[in-house]
Amino acid sequence: MTIGAEQRARIRRLFFAEHWKVGTISEALDVHADTVKRAIDSQRFVSDGQRIRASLLDTFKPFIVTTLEQHPRLRSTRLFDMVKARGYAGSCRQLRRYVATIRPARPSEAYLLLTTMPGEQGQMDWGSFGVVDVPGGQRRLSLFVLVLSHSRGMVARFSLDQRMDTFLHCHRLAFEKFGGAPRQILYDNLKSVVLERVGEHVRFHPSVLEFASHYHFVPRPCAPYRPNEKGIVERMIQYVRGSFFEGRSFTDVDDLNEQLDAWVEQCAHQRAHPRDEERRTVGALLEAERERLLPLPAHAPSTHRMEALRSGKLPYLRFDTNDYSIPHTLARKPLTLLADDATVRVMHGEELVATHVRSYAKRQVIEDLAHIDPLVAEKKRAWELRGRDRLRALCPHANALLEVIAARNEPVRQRTAKLNQLLDLYGANALDAAIVQALESGAPAVGSVAYLLDKEHRRSGRVPPQAIEMSKHVRDKDVLVVPHDMSDYDVLGRLDDAQTGAEA
């Protein structure tokens, strides 16, 4: 039972001043006797001559103090393991209470209010907005934000990845919407921007440097663990999250971006600038800042994603988990895939051989019927040629008959199929003989060959063969038919005679 300070003081007064027994106090105040004893034994204040009870931690306090001076951010759990290895037998809770009283307080840091000139600086960052459902699975939803530090004008765009091509493409769209580029852009230490950093020495991604040189801006990364340096774009991401995204419904990313563009123009750019004394809107300051931005180059750089690929046996190229069709004649050949946010193109050398709408679904097949239909027709042709090769191999005179049929513009494929059926019914020797007879008689036709085969079978007294459709398991093995024992019928006959005699 836990009691308050007032109750504890009353118990101690009754015990020490009034000399009441523990049981009397317990009964009078309706508290447990153990609670009364704990209140009597408690001592919050120590007199000058009173000795404080030693703690299990006393021996290790100098080590703890020294360690915290060297490593101020060392966690209490790690410190507990260190003193436990040195013989400490107390609890981690006791250690944690002591560390809280002596840990050096982190010095409070004051920040300077930085102001930028029009067109001087932009800040860029990615924001994570969970996942969205797509056919075949889910994809992460990211938000690209580029903010002009002076006017607070921004361009924001949702995407389903943070790849380099998407990163550069969003920059290009932002510059086109601003009508120019700032002189420097401040980044977090993104992997797409900074490949390596040692102190003040930074190795930028070559694609970023090439892109920056085209637009004449300077990429500048923030100092490590200094997110305040790009606090403007950090607040913009939270602004979009709370004022636009939360509770909003959309059909797809394109629909979401259309809504976002309208919201930026109608809401975000119409709010009052937080630092402007005249309380002008962000949009008004953005219009004034456009004149101070770096002019756009005459030709925009390519932001396509380029990959060298080679298909397998199937006429498809796999890109971003999806399969895109290509002409079947280019299977197993080296190709180049170019992808932007809307289109996937396939090049064979300098020739454009396929164009598809880019899909952001997962594990889907995107086909162009112009690629598939010729393959289907060729496969049918392959089956036809396979039937002809069989006839030529088994019946030497079949090719002559097929040439006559082709010269008369008859359907060769159908006639070939019919000849193969006759081959299965009558055999190769009989079919070849019938073909020779038909050619010599001046009636080179499949119908004539079938007539001659049937006539020969009837002349020899054999029953003409009939094609019987049977299932595969019947065709592949012999069927054993066991005849029934006819003696059963004799028994039935005797029973029938006995019954007839009894009736008579």
Identify the notable features of this structure and list them briefly.
504 residues; Nucleotidyltransferase, domain 5; 5 domains; 18 helices; 14 strands; elongated
Q: What's the rounded overall pLDDT mean?
A: 82
Rg over C-alpha atoms, rounded to the nearest angstrom:
46 Å
Summarize the biggest pleated sheet: 5 strands, mixed
| Number of contiguous helices | 18
**How many DSSP-defined strands?**
14
Question: How would you classify the helix and strand content by structural class?
Answer: alpha+beta
Widest sheet, order of strands: 3-2-1-4-7
| Named CATH topology of the largest domain | Nucleotidyltransferase, domain 5
Structural account:
The strands form four sheets. Strands 3-2-1-4-7 form a five-stranded mixed beta sheet, with helices on both faces. It has a four-stranded antiparallel beta sheet with strand order 8-11-12-13. The chain has a three-stranded mixed beta sheet with strand order 9-10-14, with no helix packed on it. It has helices at 5-16, 22-29, 33-41, 61-70, 76-85, 92-102, 164-178, 206-215, 231-245, 253-266, 282-289, 369-394, 398-407, 412-426, 428-440, 446-459, 472-475, 487-503; strands at residues 121-134, 137-148, 154-159, 184-187, 194-198, 201-204, 218-221, 305-310, 316-319, 322-325, 334-339, 343-348, 351-357, 365-366. The termini are far apart. Helix content is 44%, strand content 17%. The chain folds into five domains: 1-45; 54-106; 121-292, Nucleotidyltransferase, domain 5; 309-367, no CATH class; 382-475. With 504 residues, the protein is of the alpha+beta class. α2 crosses α3 (33-41), α14 (412-426) crosses α15 and α15 (428-440) packs across α16. It is built from 18 helices and 14 strands.
